[in-house]
UniProtKB/TrEMBL annotation:
Transmembrane segments: none annotated. It comes from the Bacteria. Pfam families: DUF1330. Residues 3-96 form the DUF1330 domain. This is DUF1330 domain-containing protein. The lineage of its organism: Bacteria, Bacillati, Actinomycetota, Actinomycetes, Kitasatosporales. It comes from Streptomyces albospinus.
Length: 97
């Protein structure tokens, strides 16, 4: 079964402190859904039209599991805490294997 991934890119974060409230709820929700944090922030080398701002990568054992974790009640509560001042490009993608 192909793995599933959450990929989030944050082009703009105007209030990093409010983002922390989201993270406190999102972390447990992701783990409860079977997600494993592979990368959050850290060093980035951007090429072409790349973005050097925060990038988050989370792995799940399957694509359906990744979708279900996003749709879970716990994660939906976390989304409510995501501040308006955060611009995020979020995708759920299927791995090759």
């Amino acid at each position: 079964m192909a793995k599933g991934y959450w990929v989030s890119v944050y082009p703009a974060i105007s209030d990093p402190e409010r983002l922390t409230a989201y993270e406190k709820l999102a972390g447990p929700a992701v783990r409860a859904g079977g997600g494993r944090l592979l990368s959050r922030g850290g060093r980035v080398v951007a090429h072409e039209a790349g973005i050097t701002q925060r990038v988050v990568l989370i792995e799940f054992d399957g694509f359906e599991q990744a979708v279900a974790a996003y749709e879970s009640e716990a994660y939906q509560k976390a989304l409510v805490a995501l501040p308006d001042g955060v611009e995020r490009d979020f995708r759920i993608i299927e791995g090759i294997d």
